[in-house]
From TrEMBL, chain A:
Protein name: Sugar ABC transporter ATP-binding protein
Keyword Repeat: yes
ABC transporter domain span: 27-268, 266-527
Domain of life: Bacteria
Residues forming coiled coils: none
Entry-linked SMART domains: AAA (SM00382)
């Protein structure tokens, strides 16, 4: 299902007030589009945020949330469309201009400097206000910072060293900074919170939300979050993005969690796209047996069997522990408790070498950090785990011709472009980089593949190639553990789906080719 | 060498450009100012003066390739040079060489183990090691040059076996060839590039990251030991100031050649060119009688210019 976008402001906002009187809209986007080479990040997005409003912005990875935030805070220039903040149109190209109009972003990765006191962070870049002939009036800075912190009832000393504060406290300081900066200009702050609760404990998150509720009449907020319950906890309105398009803007009372999730991830699943017809029955042989796997609080007592020829999907929201599960199985991380057996051989905890020798290939989620060496060639990336296949007759040496042929063979089979093995990997598109990551394991002849969101950020064509490849591998008897954020993909490809919630396995759902579950069957176990 | 070059990625060949251009300009300029610059003898001088620098720069290349840095190489050359001067009369050439190389390798091992096990940045570990090694060298030598009786060592370094080219040059060139072969034709070489280009990728691919990092430091230390013996033989004595100018020139040569300080890009073959630039520049200014203080200024300017042309900025988020 698709909820059509009907921004209520489309008619209203034909004339924007140019006066300094507070506009009734804190934020107004009209027809904002942005393309990057190969992808359309945003397609004609329009929505509004009321003055002192609290808007939730939701969407899955790659839906365009980050691009949208970057456009609003002035770091990215849209191809088309206009943005107005507090009634004033933004001229793009000056990140500082959005700040002058009141926009402040509180990022996941925090933007505070750990080695200086809180008050210096609060006024970082605005010292001019407090300086006379280049000398800073420190007492006034401190007093001013204290006034803001007190007004927001944030219990942090302005003189405290920022690095000594907890993550939650630092986040509050960032919000205080936004208010303090807005005071200087003076404008009403429009605060963009990017995944603010992802690194907070439940009690810290509750504290943050208490604060935001108190600050209602002082500023306007946009909350970007994966966690729908955060949105329901404090937002008045919600906007959903999918594939760069706005698919819903409604009052929070008019939606429930299931509807929201549907509009974020809901896709017409195309059975052909996932080659559901060629889904096979698993063999009897157990490839991976996990018994009671635990790793700190991220994975707790997870057990499953993965059979040869089977694709086992792992679903879960961000922070459910599904990525850590993949790392444990691949031997990249070491479990605290529990046992892994690969084709009958127990795997020593965290023994990556042994896991590779037993035939595990691992495709990590962060391709450019863990999957591909951008400064190196396709050939060197492909052969990295395969030195034993390209040995020269002379001991110690590698055979350039074997290396070249192996590379040529896999570039051909996976249709990597460019087909020149000497091309540097950082010049490749994401899809081709991912093919190289797959290729280095396929060249080894792996029997087990652990894939962490392998199709993330790839275009449709590259995805199609990847899915076909996974089917082909399963047909040849490989066992595949597929962790993914994309439910349609999981349903389409998997034989069974293991659902994780808060580190635990909350459900194991069968997905035979003629009776695929619906997204709505899986969602309750995730949320 | 040709086939190796032809098999390198096209991007690498392109970035040879600046060093080759620099070399051509320098040769043209100095030979106009002083025609003797182009003579066969002078070419031999350039080679003699830069052989030890080439060895040390190769040692530094291995470390910079994996994304680390070694500041102790110059001090290590000094120390191993003194040790070989002290032992050559008692142990003979092979013995003193063994002492120097083993000492170098052990120092490398210590550096490597501290970097990987205690997880201290290589910059700091080797900065400390620089101080320790020069202290030891001064203590052993009491600040004096160590003179020895053995005449085979000086003859071996300064004499010429083939083509009237001094043996030190053969040693350094041979080491360059061996290092280049290691870099492109062995597992070790490919792993070194992988470590510098993406340590996590390498670790995910099952590369024993810690082991190979330590190996890099050990190799680098061993080569510095060899360079120490070469220097002692060339000079005819072990001196406590012998290696002092090497560190900065070596890092400059490596980076000018095009090996990125961030690791994973470049290689020994490039360092060869970087050393050539520095050697030609130094010698050219000598033969054109530029005074030595001016030489330092010019060298500094050329290094900054060359690096700003060759450095690969794509890996840097910030320039610090």
């Amino acid at each position: 299902m698709v909820v059509s976008a009907t921004p209520s402001s489309a008619v209203r906002a034909t004339s924007m007030p140019a006066s300094t009187a507070p506009s009734s809209l804190a934020l107004e986007l009209r027809g904002v589009s942005k393309s990057y080479p190969g992808t359309k990040a945003l397609t004609s997005v329009s929505f509004t945020l009321k003055r002192f409003g609290m808007l939730g912005l939701v969407g899955e990875n790659g839906a365009g949330k980050s691009t949208l935030l970057s456009i609003v805070n002035g770091t990215v220039r849209p191809d088309e469309g206009t943005v107005a903040i507090n009634g004033k149109p933004v001229r793009f190209g000056h990140p500082s201009e959005a700040a002058r109009l009141g926009v402040a972003t509180v990022f996941q990765e925090q933007g505070l400097i750990a080695t200086i006191p809180v008050y210096e962070n609060i006024f970082l870049g605005r010292e001019k206000t407090f300086s006379l002939g280049g000398v800073l009036h420190q007492p006034r800075m401190i007093a001013e910072a204290k006034a803001v912190l007190d007004e927001l009832e944030i219990d942090v000393s302005p003189r405290a060293l920022t690095g000594n504060l907890s993550f939650g406290q630092r986040q509050l300081v960032e919000i205080a900074k936004a208010f303090a900066v807005a005071r200087i200009y003076p404008v009403e702050p429009v605060i963009l919170l990017d995944e603010p609760t992802s690194a907070l404990s439940d009690s810290e998150a509750a504290k943050l939300f208490d604060g935001i509720r108190r600050w209602r009449k002082k500023g306007s907020f946009v909350l970007v979050s994966h966690r729908l319950r955060d949105v329901f906890a404090i937002c008045e309105e919600v906007v959903a993005l999918k594939d760069g398009c706005l698919v819903l803007q409604r009052g929070i009372d008019e939606v429930d969690e299931a509807l929201l999730h549907q509009s974020i991830v809901g896709r017409e699943r195309n059975a052909f796209f996932y080659h559901e017809g060629s889904q096979r029955e698993p063999e009897a042989e157990i490839a991976v047996s996990a018994a009671g796997l635990s790793k700190s609080s991220q994975v707790q007592d997870v057990s499953f069997d993965l059979r040869a020829g089977e694709i086992l999907g792992v679903a879960g929201v961000l922070g459910s522990g599904k990525s850590m599960l993949a790392k444990l199985v691949a031997g990249v991380e070491q479990q605290d408790k529990g046992m892994l057996t690969l084709y009958g051989t127990p795997l020593k905890p965290g023994a990556r070498r042994q896991a590779i020798d037993l035939g595990i290939g691992y495709v990590p989620a962060e391709r450019t950090i863990g999957g591909i060496i951008g400064t190196d060639t396709i050939e060197n990336n492909l052969t990295l785990p395969n030195m034993s296949l390209i040995k020269h007759a002379i001991p110690w040496f590698l055979s350039p011709s074997l290396s070249r042929n192996l590379t040529k063979q896999w570039i051909g089979r996976l249709r990597v472009r460019p087909s020149n093995g000497k091309a540097l990997c950082r010049t490749l598109s994401g899809g081709n980089q991912q093919k190289v990551v797959f290729g280095k394991w396929l060249a080894r002849g792996v029997r087990i593949l652990v894939l962490d969101d392998p199709a993330r950020g790839l275009d449709v064509g590259a995805k199609e190639d990847l899915y076909a490849l996974m089917r082909e591998m399963a047909a040849a008897g490989a066992a595949i553990l597929l962790v993914s954020d994309n439910l349609a993909e999981l349903i389409g490809l998997s034989n069974r789906i293991l659902v994780m919630r808060n580190g635990q396995c909350s459900a194991l759902i069968d997905a035979p080719k003629d009776a695929k579950p619906r997204e709505i069957d899986i969602l309750p176990a995730m949320l | 060498m040709r086939t190796i070059i032809s098999r390198m990625p096209s991007g690498q060949i392109r970035s040879f450009g600046p060093s080759i251009v620099a070399i051509a300009i320098l040769i043209a300029y100095f030979s106009i100012v002083n025609p003797l610059f182009l003579s066969y003898e002078n070419a031999g001088n350039i080679g003699r003066q830069s052989s030890v620098l080439l060895m040390v720069s190769l040692a530094e290349t291995v470390i910079i390739l994996i994304g680390s840095i070694d500041l102790s190489i110059g001090a290590l050359v000094t120390l191993t040079g003194i040790l070989s001067a002290l032992t050559v009369d008692a142990l003979g050439i092979v013995g003193s060489m063994a002492v120097a190389v083993v000492t170098g390798a052990v120092v490398g091992l210590i550096n490597g183990v501290i970097v990987t096990q205690l997880r201290v940045p290589s910059f700091l570990v080797t900065l400390g090691m620089l101080s320790i090694l020069s202290g030891i060298a001064n203590q052993i030598s009491q600040g004096q040059s160590i003179i020895f009786e053995n005449q085979i060592l000086p003859n071996m370094m300064n004499g010429s076996l083939f083509l009237h080219v001094p043996n030190v040059i053969w040693f350094a060139v041979l080491t360059t060839v061996i290092f280049t072969l290691i870099a492109f034709r062995t597992r070790l070489g490919r792993y070194l590039y992988a470590l510098g280009g993406g340590e996590i990728v390498a670790s995910n691919a099952g590369v024993p990251v810690t082991f190979y990092k330590i190996v890099a430091f050990v190799i680098s230390g061993g080569v510095c030991g060899l360079a120490g013996v070469m220097l002692t033989g060339q000079v005819g004595a072990g001196t406590p100031t012998a290696g002092s100018g090497l560190l900065l020139n070596a890092i400059a040569a490596v980076v000018m050649g095009g090996t990125a300080l961030s690791g994973g890009v470049g290689g020994p073959h490039r360092t060869f060119l970087g050393v050539l630039v520095i050697a030609i520049l130094t010698n050219g200014m000598d033969v054109t009688q530029v005074n030595s203080f001016t030489q330092d200024i010019v060298k500094g300017i050329v290094i900054i210019l060359a690096v700003s042309l060759t450095i690969d900025r794509s890996k840097y988020l910030f320039i610090k």
